[in-house]
Design a protein that fits this description.
Layout (H helix, E strand, L loop, with lengths): L2 E6 L2 E8 L7 E5 L12 H9 L2 E5 L19 H15 L5 E6 L1 H12 L4 E7 L7 H16 L2 H9 L3 H12 L10 H4 L6 E6 L8 H9 L4 E6 L6 H4 L1 H14 L4
Parallel strand pairs: 3-4, 3-5, 5-6, 6-7, 7-8
Antiparallel strand pairs: 1-2, 2-4
Protein name: Pimeloyl-ACP methyl ester carboxylesterase
Organism: Chryseobacterium profundimaris
Pfam family, one: Abhydrolase_1
Length: 258
């Protein structure tokens, strides 16, 4: 897929879009809080090949090859705002039917988008998303910040984000570790989700517990399914890609989304 910079109301975002399959939905991949287009590796290509769907992968502002953020400071509703940016990006590309595949922050953004823009979203695959703040998440973020400050994590992330690394890490960790964010919660939005949902979660996720899955599944009004994977961490699509790929393809086929 060829990548390009797309101006979305002043936000210059890097995106890779393949729309060769006419009359097929587009699978939109939403990366995590330290992720990027590159860090999805070949998972999007494989899922697209198996389902014959179109694909859109993009770097949120401040990540990957997108332009830098204006500031590291974030409001409590920053993921709700990212759902609006995604909708604007879809509008700019004239994409009307999507299946959202989001990981971590991306999973949360996928849920919010499905609630706010139901006419576009046909289904959601949420991997390790969050609908409220819990102690496990805060500890995971604190541990990640410690690793950033004491190991070569910064150097490894520069490969994907360049000089933007320090700002994006600060943006992510400061909001999640702040007292004002502890009350953040999007459970009130879940009732507006009426499309099929697959929630993928690992038992050993260092950033969240199975409570995230149960709260989400019980809160939506559409058909839902949970897929719990033992013995892996926060990123199943990297740790056990074939398992996640097989389940995702099955979900898309069963719900006749191809």
């Amino acid at each position: 897929m060829e990548g390009r910079i797309i101006d979305v109301h002043g936000k210059k975002l890097y995106a890779e879009y393949s729309n060769s399959n006419e009359n097929k939905p587009t699978i939109v991949f939403l990366h995590d809080s330290l992720g990027s287009v590159q860090l999805w590796r070949d998972f999007p290509v494989k899922l697209a090949a198996e389902t014959e769907c179109n694909t859109l992968i993009y770097d949120r502002l401040g990540y990957g090859q997108s332009f830098p953020m204006a500031t590291h400071e974030r409001e409590n509703n920053y993921m709700e705002t990212e759902a609006d940016v995604l909708n604007d990006l879809l509008e700019s590309l004239s994409i009307s039917e999507v299946i959202l595949f989001g990981h971590s922050d991306g999973g949360t953004i996928a849920l919010i988008t499905a609630a706010k823009y139901p006419k576009k979203v046909k289904a959601v695959i949420c991997e390790a998303g969050h609908v409220f703040v819990e102690d496990a998440t805060v500890k995971g973020v604190a541990d990640a910040l410690h690793a950033f400050n004491t190991t070569n994590l910064s150097e490894r992330l520069q490969k994907y984000h360049g000089e933007k690394v320090e700002m994006l890490v600060k943006a992510w960790t400061e909001i999640w570790l702040s007292d004002r964010f502890r009350d953040w919660n999007i459970e009130y939005l879940l009732k507006d989700i009426q499309v099929p949902l697959l929630f993928i979660q690992s038992e050993n996720d260092e950033y969240g517990t199975l409570k995230q899955v149960e709260k989400t599944i019980s809160g939506i009004n559409g058909p839902s399914e949970k897929f719990i994977i033992p013995d892996v961490g926060h990123t199943p699509h990297k740790e056990v890609p074939e398992i996640v790929l097989k389940k995702s393809v099955e979900f898309i086929r069963i719900n006749k989304l191809q």
